[in-house]
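Follow-up to my earlier ticket, as requested here are the two runs.
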Amino acid sequence: MSSTIDVVTMGNAKAGTVELAPAVFDVPVRPHLFHAEVRRQLAVRRAGTHSTKNRHAVSGGGTKPWRQKGTGRARQGSIRSPQWAGGGVVFGPVPRSYEHALPKKVRRAALRGALTQRAREGALVVVDSLELEAIKTRRMAEVLQGLGLAGQGVLIVLDAPNPNVERSARNLPGVGVLRAEGLNVYDVLRHPKLLLTRAALAAVSGRLAGKEGAA
């Protein structure tokens, strides 16, 4: 099944149409894949810098606090044992990575499903080009308002670095900017609307409509 979508200018005038690749924008939507991929993405972002000291890392306690026998008290080997105040921690957290693997096939299927869902919701807007003469947040807000996207969560997808657009949009609440190669499930799902340039749409389709497209 093939479908087309209108391409508009920055002034919201129709500039033609473009076909949406069925292998990317018309696939089964599987929410469990969204969960798996978002969980993986958030796990990668965890710092994992938490740390505690066990009894060997805590300073002090090099000698027995009292002799082994004859005191009437329980035997103790060190005042830095876990049962002592200021002692080491048993099985405490240590620096680690929370990253876990997910097959590339599954990750691509999740992203295609997320894009399909947005396409079915009518949440895709394709603009012929997106260029600003200077870094102006107000100008970026005007462009989004003209496209009917003001006040909404919008993910802008570009095909190449564009400092003027990227820096103009970064202070707008709910607006994110990504390049086509960095498009991911988490950002697609957390923004109700997608604004893609024509070149970015072609780049995304080329990236996801390859051999894994049937997965």
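Run two:
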Amino acid sequence: MFYEFWEDYFNNLLIHNFFFSHLAYELLGFYKSELKLFAVVKQLFVRSSEITELNNVKIFLTENGFINKRANDYYQPELGIIVEDLHDENVLTKDDTLHFIDTVFFLTTSFFDED
């Protein structure tokens, strides 16, 4: 739903799995319904123990070089990636630890720039 091309979706899975390997997506296969193709993924279940404070998400990401662009969307200029949709249903808190379970990553053109 966020991605126009499958390549962007697969990049999202790879980036998520790189940053959050303990909550990695496993691509199980594909499902076709009414001429639409869907990816079927599996991920570890996390039961939150407290409400996620979005300011804690912002602090964590800022300390890791991300810039808050608007609401729950962030940009990491050195890496050339964007992560969006980090609201309190996509970032869970368990035992004072943030768990990013439903990330939406995009690569920017600067990701592909040669140094």
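The only thing I checked on run two: The two ends are 33 Å apart (CA to CA). Let me know what else you need.
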